[in-house]
Amino acid sequence: VTISFILLFSxxxxxxxxxxxxxxxxxxxxxxxxGRGNSSExxxxxxxxxxxxxxxxxxxxxxxxxxxxxxxxxxxxxxxSPPSDNPFRGPS
Length: 92
Description:
By secondary structure, the chain is an all-alpha fold. It has a domain at 1-62. 63% of the residues lie in helices and 0% in strands. It has helices spanning 2-49, 52-61. It is elongated, with a radius of gyration of 37 Å.
């Protein structure tokens, strides 16, 4: 009778231990799922924040920066030939 009581008590103890471990595993699975969801949301937010339109609006709004007018590329009137000697060497 004593042996069966000890065996039954040890089975109940191991079952309680397994239940507590399973609860911890379930909690960790839930945290992982939440972390993955947060990660996906943050990736979308980063994509939105680094867009050129948003950067421009922040620069113009909060930073009071102005967009430059259209620039024109200057074209050389004539081609300059390179110097024949070393221009960085002093007089000899």
